[in-house]
Amino acid sequence: MLILVINAGSSSLKYQLFDMPEGKVIAKGLCERIGIEGGRNVHTDRNGNKLETKVHMNSHTDAIRILTERLTDPETGVISSMKEINAVGHRVLHGGIRFTASTIVTPEVKEAISACIPLGPLHNPANLMGIDACEEVMGDVPQVAVFDTAFGTATMPAKAYTYAVPKELSDKYDIRRYGFHGTSHRFVSGRAIEMLGGKKDLRIVTCHLGNGSSCSAIKDGCCVDTSMGLTPLEGLPMGTRSGSIDPAIIGFIAEHENMTASEVVTMLNKKSGVLGVTGGFSSDFRDLMAAREAGNELASLAVEMLAYSVKKYIGAYAAAMGGLDAVVFTGGIGENNEVIRNLIAEDMEFIGIKLDPEKKLAHEKNCDIAAEDSKVRVLVIETNEELVIARDTLELVGLN
Ligand code: ADP
């Protein structure tokens, strides 16, 4: 069965074509700068050959047409017609309180995704454009929506998801913790359970550390708490996002800088995090690590702030779950940056975390880097959100 996975952003569209149930990617690519000058498509075919084309795209529908041409190209394509694709799975950012699991797209589901736009104003409209574009170009092929919020929203208890704000407002606007990166936390916690023998009754903290970062507490395979909230701004300090701050700072800056609350929130999303802390130096941890090595104190502070913050979440979630069996590192930083991982794990023997002196320096993925006598296992796992989307799509379409 062939399943196309789509991740549509406001001006970009990423795609992967999976051969399921094997989970093999047979082609993938990216359309960038949709609706603006300088559009381009980067396509990787079955043999791993990369083809880069400059092409103007007015809309997401144009992007789907481009990927159709690439996939069905008589020379470099992998299929002869889009009719060979059995289903399409879409990443959708916000499912609100309605969607606690993936679902087949119907007109009513599209309306419900649209109703969540106030909660995900940057992403949900783009996700819907991706769905509409597939409908337009591919006709009535079944489509599935996989929500970034579903894993957290499905099982978090009220004491973890409720904000202490007036109830009439939280009821009116569905203000609560939803959590994001749910597809990644679900995938890596599932892999961790497999790697640790298959028994679900584990207490795991999953740390997805990338441009956006979040930690989740997973007990018995269910998410019981997570660091992102109503939006992906809460929690850890990130590339450009502040993470948790005293909410009064918003009013303070608005008043003293003559800004609206919404302008301050945009600044907290786009100009803060490690980019902000380093005075605009970089949001990318590769740059920060190099600068730190060269003695840049602000880069060093930014790196330490992330590690310290993750350390605090591990401690907090171990307390919340009544113990800790495993910590999982994933995402660009979690998978590749041993310096940050080691800073996080430093002096954590009191909680049962002890890294193996050799493994903690290695660059392997999908392995356990804890010392043999460590009470808590520490796993580095490569995330694969697209595979989860393909699997959910297969399952839902297969059931119908
Ligand atoms: P996103 O959250 O956008 O999916 P990623 O998960 O790719 O982003 O994470 C991006 C972050 O991971 C950047 O800060 C980058 O510096 C870091 N990163 C990615 N690859 C590496 C690597 N090989 N070594 C060290 N850091 C890396």
At a glance:
Helices cover 39% and strands 19% of the residues. The protein has 15 helices and 14 strands.
Largest sheet: 8 strands, mixed
Q: Looking across the biggest beta sheet, what order are the strands in?
A: 5-4-3-2-1-6-8-7
The Rg value, from CA coordinates, equals 21 Å
Approximate shape: globular
First-last Cα distance:
14 Å
* SS class: alpha/beta
Q: List bound small molecules.
A: adenosine-5'-diphosphate
Give me the count of strands. 14
Q: Kindly estimate the percentage of residues that lie in beta strands according to DSSP.
A: 15-25%
Number of helices: 15
Could you give the order of the helices and strands? EEEEEHEEHHEHHHHEEEHHHHHEHHEEH
Description:
This protein is 39% helix and 19% strand. It is of the alpha/beta class and 400 residues long. A hairpin with a 2-residue loop joins strand 10 and strand 11 (222-226). The radius of gyration is 21 Å and the shape is globular. The structure holds adenosine-5'-diphosphate. Adenosine-5'-diphosphate binds next to helix 11 and helix 13.
Write the layout of secondary structure elements.
Layout: E1 2-8, E2 13-19, E3 24-32, E4 40-44, E5 50-54, H1 60-72, E6 87-92, E7 103-104, H2 107-115, H3 124-138, E8 143-147, H4 150-155, H5 158-161, H6 167-173, H7 182-195, E9 203-209, E10 213-219, E11 222-226, H8 248-257, H9 261-270, H10 273-277, H11 285-293, H12 297-321, E12 326-330, H13 331-336, H14 338-345, E13 367-368, E14 377-380, H15 385-399
Parallel strand pairs: 1-6, 6-8, 9-12, 12-14
Antiparallel strand pairs: 1-2, 2-3, 3-4, 4-5, 7-8, 9-10, 10-11, 13-14
The structure holds adenosine-5'-diphosphate.
Adenosine-5'-diphosphate binds at residues 210-212, 239, 284-286, 331-333, 336-337.
